[in-house]
Design brief:
2,3-Dihydroxybiphenyl 1,2-Dioxygenase, domain 1; nine-stranded mixed β-sheet; 385 residues; alpha+beta; 28% helix
C-alpha cells in the first residue's frame, strides 16, 4: 500500500544497454548477421578521444545495444573489463524530466557518479547522469532527450543504417534479468532508491521436481517493476542446499560478481523467428524432450484450453510455453550464453531471450524451471569438455 504512494522518477522506458567488450567486431557481426540488428552509429574522433574507446550502436525495433571496446588503459570500459568478462556495464533509462529524477534520486540516497551533463548535436539535445547500483559494477544512466535517435554522446550517425533490417520483428526489451549471491540488498535498493515495486516471485529447487538430480540446486527470484512505465527487472539468488551448485552462483563466478544475466526481447512470431535463426546456425539452450511429453497435461493443469501452435513444431524448435488461464500464454526461448556462442570464456555468461506474449504478462514458473535445468545441463557439458 505504501509503495503505491511513492513519488515516481518519471521513467519512460529502458533506452539502451551498453556492453563493454574486448572484441567489438565479433559482437557487432553476431547481432547484425545472426539477429538482424542494424548498425546506426559509430564512434568518431571526439568519442574516441573523450572515452578512450571505440563504439558502435545497433538497433532492432525499439531495442538499442551499444558496444564499447577500450582503446587505452584507464578508460571506463578498460577498468570494467579488467574485472569482468564482456557484459552489460550500463543500463540507460529514459526519463521525462532529468532535473526531477536527479533531485529525487539524490534525496533517496543514490550514489551519483557524474554531474548532470548536457550534450547537443545535430539539433538534438540530451542531458544525463550516472549512478552506482546494487548490480555490482553495472551502472544506471538516466537520460532526457529532445529527439528519438537514442545516440550516445559524440557518436556519429551513419547516413543510412547498415546491416540488418529487423526481419525477425524484434519489437522491444521485455525485461532484464540479473543474478546476485544475495538478493535482499538489491531488491531493497530497487524499492527504496528507484521506487520500484514487487511484481512476481518464485522459489525453486530441482529436488522439488526429482530426487534424481543428486544434491540438486535452486534459486529464489523476485521481479521488480515500475508500474508507470511497465519496465521490469527479474532478480535471482542461489538457494540452499547445494548453494554453490546453482547456475546463479556459477554465473556470479563466471561474471566475477553480480550483474545482468540476460535481456528478453519481444518478437511478433517466435516460431518463424526461431526457425529462421536456426537456419543461420544461431545457438539456443537445449530443452529436454520430456518437457514436451508433459506439455499437453501441464497446459490443461494451467487452464490453458488451447494454443495456436502445434506441439510437434514447438518440440522441433525447442520453444517453451507457459501461462495462466484460457488462451493466456507466452512462448519463449533462450540463446546460448556469449561464451558458448563465441567459444571464448571471456565473452561472458550473458545471453538473449526471445519472448512472444499472447495474453500472459507473467514469467512462466514452469519455463523458469526448464530454463534453470537447461543452463545447468549446458554448464555440465562445458565442465566436461
Amino acid at each position: 500500500m505504501g509503495s503505491a504512494q511513492k513519488e515516481r522518477l518519471g521513467i519512460k522506458r529502458i533506452d539502451s544497454l551498453h556492453f563493454f567488450v574486448r572484441d567489438l567486431e565479433r559482437s557487432r557481426d553476431h547481432y547484425v548477421q545472426k539477429l538482424d540488428f542494424a548498425e546506426i552509429a559509430v564512434s568518431g574522433p571526439a568519442f574516441e578521444q573523450a572515452e578512450g574507446a571505440r563504439a558502435t550502436l545497433l538497433r532492432a525495433g525499439g531495442v538499442r545495444f551499444a558496444f564499447v571496446s577500450p582503446l587505452r588503459e584507464g578508460s571506463e570500459s578498460a577498468r570494467w573489463l579488467a574485472v569482468h568478462p564482456e557484459g552489460i556495464g550500463r543500463v540507460v533509462l529514459e526519463v521525462e524530466d532529468i532535473d526531477h529524477a536527479y533531485d529525487l534520486l539524490t534525496r533517496r540516497g543514490a550514489t551519483v557518479i557524474t554531474d548532470l551533463v548536457r550534450h547537443t548535436a545535430d539539433g538534438e539535445t540530451m542531458r544525463w547522469f550516472d549512478i552506482a547500483t546494487a548490480f555490482g559494477d553495472t551502472m544506471f544512466r538516466f537520460v532526457e532527450r529532445t529527439g528519438t535517435r537514442g545516440m550516445m554522446p559524440h557518436l556519429v550517425m551513419l547516413p543510412a543504417p547498415r546491416g540488418g533490417d529487423n526481419r525477425f520483428g524484434i519489437a522491444e526489451l521485455d525485461h532484464l534479468t540479473s543474478n546476485f549471491l544475495t538478493l535482499k540488498p538489491a531488491t531493497m535498493w530497487m524499492e527504496q532508491v528507484l521506487g520500484l515495486e514487487r511484481y512476481w516471485g518464485i522459489e525453486f529447487h530441482t529436488q522439488d521436481v526429482s530426487k534424481d538430480h543428486g544434491e540438486g540446486s535452486g534459486l529464489k527470484s523476485i521481479v521488480m517493476w515500475d508500474p508507470e512505465s511497465g519496465i521490469k527487472f527479474a532478480n535471482n539468488e542461489p538457494a540452499a542446499p547445494a548453494f554453490h551448485a546453482s547456475q546463479i552462483y556459477k554465473f556470479c563466478v563466471d561474471h566475477r560478481g553480480p550483474g545482468v544475466q540476460h535481456a528478453a526481447l519481444t518478437v511478433a512470431d517466435i516460431v518463424g523467428t526461431v526457425r529462421a535463426m536456426r537456419a543461420l546456425d544461431v545457438g539456443f539452450m537445449p530443452t529436454p524432450g520430456a518437457y514436451y511429453d508433459l506439455l499437453p497435461t501441464r497446459l490443461t493443469e494451467l487452464g490453458i484450453d488451447e494454443i495456436d501452435e502445434d506441439v510437434a513444431t514447438l518440440r522441433e524448435l525447442q520453444v517453451l510455453v507457459d501461462g495462466d488461464g484460457p488462451r493466456q500464454y507466452l512462448l519463449q526461448i533462450f540463446l546460448r550464453e556469449a561464451a558458448g556462442l563465441f567459444g571464448d570464456p571471456e565473452a561472458g555468461p550473458f545471453f538473449v531471450e526471445l519472448i512472444q506474449r499472447k495474453g500472459d504478462r507473467g514469467f512462466g514458473a514452469g519455463n523458469f524451471r526448464a530454463l534453470f535445468e537447461s543452463i545447468e545441463r549446458q554448464q555440465s557439458r562445458s565442465c566436461a569438455a
